[in-house]
Design a protein that fits this description.
Elements (H helix, E strand, L loop, with lengths): L7 E10 L2 E2 L1 H9 L6 E2 L12 E2 L13 H4 L4 H17 L11 E6 L5 H14 L8 H5 L3 H10 L5 E2 L7 H14 L5 E8 L4 H9 L29 E9 H6 L6 E10 L12 H13 L9 E3 L6 H15 L7 E3 L2 H4 L6 H15 L1 E2 L22 E2 L4 E8 L3 E8 L5
Parallel strand pairs: 5-6, 5-7, 10-11, 10-14
Antiparallel strand pairs: 1-2, 1-8, 1-9, 3-4, 7-8, 9-15, 12-13, 14-15
């Protein structure tokens, strides 16, 4: 017996980002080229060469979580709970005893509860183990983001987590898409969350020389594809979506942002932090996503690039795009919203997948700001400075992480016929 292919759509989004909390504020700022990067306020170290970050300034966990429970969770879990609540409300999805077994949660984080680790390590070293919170372990474990969301909303379907560095959010959404497609759930709450603007995380990235040191101009520090880029900017936040099987969404009258039609994942097998020198992993990942969606390269209109503002990523991602799309590479639009948000690490793919879905829904391609002097090696149409209002049919979200892990999600504009 041949089963009818199950289509999957995006019906709800939840955003917590340096450019704003909530869909309306974040999307408005993104399409208007507003940068969310500023001076680092979370800690002070006069010897630290990096003093900028993409901090979330307008999120109050007490709007979503009780005072008692806030103390039991690290900040990345606060973000996950808040963004998931937003996405569920945006989707108008009601989880009841009748459908709970068919609604799942798949939320990941690249690093997890590092702030709790740093804090309680200090407490232990200074005053002994009795100063460690009994909630310390649940604060830091990555899958407790998904666990807390499922407990709060009553979702009893597939429950899992992903930890694939900067590809986490996209892997979570892509894996959730496949769970629905194969019939194991009718709806999934999926995405990525991260909050590690801490001395160890910033110091660790800084000592690798991965971060921008443009401390006097934080709003100009993240500059993907620009000749004068000098590294990425550490940021925090969460991007969570509600994915649904199409008929399930239509039967309840849900508003649909976009359809998910393809998913690719590959490994570079090359280096612990650098992408493969010929862009092979990214090339194969994009190709797999297109093949999964039965979409030709010429049909793709927009790519939300990984675009980190590092020399190797930007050049090698450009090489991979040109290798796959050939002459069409110069006809499609490519932009990096990290130019405004900075790099949300494990949350990046979740946030950027939402930007892809909204670009399709509203017919607006976000810009790449700070692209003042294009790198000659990066010679595609990166939608410099200003958003572009144009209807697009297919959008690809690229996410690549340390360890050579790659994820690409292909979205399609939804047309109800």
């Amino acid at each position: 017996m041949v089963l009818k292919e199950r289509k999957v759509v995006v019906t709800g989004v939840g955003l917590i980002t340096p450019v704003g909390t909530g869909k309306e504020k974040a999307w408005n700022n993104i399409i208007n080229g507003v940068c969310g990067i500023g001076p680092l306020t979370r800690f002070s170290d006069p010897l630290m060469p990096v003093r900028i970050a993409g901090e979330v300034a307008d999120f109050d966990p007490l709007q979503y979580i009780s005072v008692k429970d806030v103390k039991k969770m690290d900040r990345f879990i606060h973000f996950a709970v808040g963004a998931a609540d937003m996405a569920i409300e945006d989707a108008a999805l009601k989880i009841t005893s009748e459908n709970a077994n068919r609604v799942g949660v798949l939320i990941g984080s690249g690093i997890g509860g590092l702030p709790a680790i740093e804090s309680y390590c200090k407490a232990y070293m200074e005053n002994g183990y009795k100063k460690v919170s009994p909630f310390f372990i649940p604060m830091l474990i990555i899958n407790l983001a998904a666990g807390n969301v499922s407990i709060r909303c009553g979702a009893k379907g597939p429950n899992s987590s992903v930890a694939t560095a900067c590809a986490t959010g996209s892997h979570a959404i892509g894996d959730a898409y496949k769970i629905i497609q194969r019939g194991d759930a009718d709806a999934m709450i999926a995405g990525g969350t991260e909050s590690v603007i801490t001395p160890l995380a910033v110091g660790g990235f800084a000592i690798m020389k991965a971060l921008s040191r443009r401390n006097d101009e934080p709003h100009r520090a993240s500059r993907p594809f620009d000749l004068n880029r000098d590294g990425f900017v550490v940021s925090e936040g969460a991007g969570i979506v509600v994915l649904e099987e199409l008929e399930h969404a239509l039967n309840r009258g849900a508003r649909i942002y976009a359809e998910v039609v393809g998913y690719g994942m590959t490994g570079d097998a090359y280096h612990i932090t650098a992408p493969s020198i010929d862009g092979d992993g990214a090339y194969r990942c994009m190709a797999i996503a297109l093949n999964d969606g039965n979409v030709s390269p010429e049909e793709v209109d927009y790519i939300n690039a990984h675009g980190t503002s590092t020399k190797f990523n930007d050049e090698l991602e450009t090489i991979a795009i040109k290798k796959l799309f050939k002459e069409h590479a110069y006809k499609l639009a490519v932009s990096s919203t990290k130019s405004m948000t900075g790099h949300l690490l494990g949350a990046a793919g979740g946030v950027e997948s939402i930007f892809c879905a909204l670009a399709l829904h509203y017919g607006i391609i976000p810009p790449t700001i700070n692209l003042d002097t294009p790198d000659p090696e990066c010679d595609l149409d990166y939608v410099a400075h200003k958003a572009r209002k144009v209807d697009i049919n297919f959008a690809l979200c690229n996410s690549f992480g340390f360890g050579g892990t790659n994820a690409c999600i292909l979205f399609k504009r939804f047309n109800q016929t």
